[in-house]
């Protein structure tokens, strides 16, 4: 509030006293209005006194908590007037027009309206379209200059404010909401700043012809363009309201051919705005000369409508008329930029596409924004970029979305991400929480409820869901001083089921664990989907099957029976993604169109699907191999680069009415699924943990924790098969081809054994690992590939029995180890070991180191390839057997811990974990990660480190990242 010169202060309590005070004012006065209703205030040249004051005259409420009310305002030909803290209150009356302007300033200069409320009203008795919605115009400014409108609240109007034919304008800090159509309208204005406004939660009349906009400019009906415009640091938020266009600057006179460049908007700057809305016109600018759009976050939300897949018209973007000149579009986060075709004078740089429609594509909101900030609080969307993520790294988007989450109160914020290559596993990170505008203090406790009946503690946690569904995840923070904060969000897990069909049930789609019964015309045949009916092709909406696009693990299974011999034609198609056809000989062809632009074809021999018997057909993609099976027999397979492409908006169809031949037959059953291996592994791990019986719910020893950060990752013996290790649990892997009683047979090019990448990828990025195997050749001078994790490492043997290990590192180099004296082709069993330790990569055979090299960096992690044994695409194949295999990491770390059993330990240093641990014996060595530790089970003390690095038990040394030292006697 500005300072008041009490010597020139006049207090009034009625409209007549107010006019008297104005008549006696000479400039510099402050007129205080006592609480009350002053009715309609008219300040015009015929008021009977001079209204062009040489200095500012302020009319303000004496008590801001009990403001004076004005029911109408008409200021004309005035100068140097300020209205401060007034309640401008409009009441609808029968006969009012929707275009009425109860509060207006015209043909005036140096007028300010601040800290006031424009309280609108809803129509009644007008029409079904109008009744119950805001009516009239909140504030009108026409033909005026040097006008400031700041820190006002405007609501319940048809339009919030309309400003025309005016100049030198400041519109800042205003709160506009509950508007039916437009928030702010501008026409033929110059030198305008629109800054720091909050425009949100519109209440639109959806059955009306309204064209809703939060900020709109137009040229229709004007004779000069708007120029020198700044739209900066505003928040335009759909909230829980109806969608609108956000910043919409159409140039009607130009785009309809009524005017040329003389009517182009000129010198427009749009920067640092946060726009969250549900219409494509996020920032739309018509023909302009001199346009800069930079550092804006143009984002999508459905507001009060249910969330779901959206059409293009519902997703905000940046659009600029292509004939605009001198255009810069830079550092914006948006779904799309329209209008740029490389025109001269255009600069479009460092913009990032962000989107909330496809989690498999780059820029998905849950990848680039802290997940908990995606959930609006009381309608307020406060998206915050992940620190170190794409937007933060490139510094793209509006400043509020780039700022770290920081509040004066305790705020529980967390990020959720699907762990790469595992659809069932999610990573939860509470490090984004804050208090008192900064980081959380030492000793803060983090408690998680994952919504599926499981709980855990720790700053960062990995959690696997065993089935698809929607799970409400809750993080509860507890500070050492007892303050708590809780935040929840729903994590949607897609699960394995995508689409199914049975003649008795019809089509069922699956969305996050829920069944959706589809009404599908033509699919009500009691026998199944009839393929020969060209006039009634059955189709399923693309959205119910598109989840498999972009997946590296899917299965399409169907039961097919021909109605006639030698029938041929198309069976199933998702255009530009895949096609399944049958020829007259009963053979099948599956064509897959991939993301890298290639087409992979599978062709059966021996399918005989035209024999009029029912046949079970299965197409699968697993471990990079696309395969087709008929009645349980694999009839063809090919390596598939990339994954199925997603192009266009075509639905999935059965049969093809445009072909000249049509398969006569019936599909009686269909199932489409994805990521079955991930969820099967999660279920196995959960069952294993459920069967374990620790000493108590909060006690684990070092052996049960080894698999979390070190030692065993994967093992194989001919007796046990493949075993993976995760969080203290053994996971028995079902690995086709690995059931040979002698071991993994390497020479069978038609049946290459592979292990899912996720079970071995933990060694990538590690500076301490070991790969050990026992190998025996079946023939002398045999040669070929032994094992490979593509683009990470390859182990081969030559015909002389020598080994080569090729390691591909994170710094782009390749390190090669070449043995001399291995003799692995002598048909005896040999123990082979490849290790990385202290930066030295080494290969040993039967205990003897045969080569070693310094290795810069660590093993690279590139692509989604699985680990394979042998290689079907090579011309030579090693004939032999791997009878044992073990892959481990961080063995030295755990060896140091275990050596504590022989050493008296005085000080214990720990790292974070999801487990609670109690120390009962000071000679017992423990390594664990957010834990409880004590020399007495009844006196547990909370420990926490600042990162996830391994920590050790160190004798006679205090090394505690939390500055908390525990000495045990």
Radius of gyration: 36 Å
What count of helical segments does DSSP give? 8
CATH domain topology of the largest domain: Pectate Lyase C-like
CATH architecture of the largest domain: 3 Solenoid
Corresponding CATH superfamily of the largest domain: Single-stranded right-handed beta-helix, Pectin lyase-like
Helix content: under 10%
The structural class is: mainly beta
| C-alpha geometry | elongated
Number of strands: 74
What is the CA-CA span between the terminal residues? 65 Å
Query: How can the largest sheet be summarized?
Result: 22 strands, parallel
Mean pLDDT equals 86
InterPro entries: Beta_helix, ConA-like_dom_sf, Ig-like_fold, Para_beta_helix_rpt-2, PbH1, Pectin_lyas_fold, Pectin_lyase_fold/virulence, PKD/Chitinase_dom
Organism: Puniceibacterium antarcticum
Protein name: PKD domain-containing protein
Domain PKD: 441-498
List the helices and strands and how they pair.
Layout: E1 9-12, H1 15-24, E2 30-33, E3 40-43, E4 52-61, E5 69-70, E6 72-76, E7 79-84, E8 87-89, E9 103-106, E10 109-114, E11 117-119, E12 137-142, E13 145-150, E14 153-155, E15 159-172, E16 175-177, E17 182-195, E18 198-200, E19 213-218, E20 227-232, E21 235-237, E22 245-249, H2 252-255, E23 265-271, E24 274-277, E25 281-285, E26 288-294, E27 297-300, E28 317-320, E29 325-330, E30 333-334, E31 337-338, E32 346-349, E33 352-353, H3 365-368, H4 390-394, H5 399-402, E34 415-418, E35 425-429, E36 445-449, E37 455-457, E38 460-464, E39 469-478, E40 484-493, E41 497-502, E42 506-511, E43 514-517, E44 529-530, E45 538-540, E46 554-562, E47 569-574, E48 578-582, E49 588-593, E50 599-603, E51 614-622, E52 625-630, E53 633-639, E54 652-654, E55 665-674, H6 676-691, H7 702-709, E56 711-717, E57 721-726, E58 729-732, E59 744-745, E60 753-755, E61 769-777, E62 784-789, E63 793-797, E64 803-808, E65 814-818, E66 829-837, E67 840-845, E68 848-854, E69 867-869, E70 880-889, H8 891-898, E71 907-908, E72 931-933, ...
Parallel strand pairs: 1-2, 2-4, 3-6, 4-7, 5-8, 6-9, 7-10, 8-11, 9-12, 10-13, 11-14, 12-15, 13-15, 14-16, 15-17, 16-18, 17-19, 17-20, 18-21, 19-22, 20-23, 21-24, 22-25, 23-26, 24-27, 25-28, 26-29, 28-31, 29-32, 30-33
Antiparallel strand pairs: 34-35, 35-38, 36-37, 36-39, 39-40, 41-42, 41-55, 42-43, 44-55, 45-54, 46-51, 46-55, 47-48, 47-54, 48-49, 49-50, 51-52, 52-53, 56-57, 56-70, 57-58, 59-70, 60-69, 61-66, 61-70, 62-63, 62-69, 63-64, 64-65, 66-67, 67-68, 71-74, 72-73
InterPro entries: Beta_helix, ConA-like_dom_sf, Ig-like_fold, Para_beta_helix_rpt-2, PbH1, Pectin_lyas_fold, Pectin_lyase_fold/virulence, PKD/Chitinase_dom
Pfam family, one: Beta_helix
Organism: Puniceibacterium antarcticum
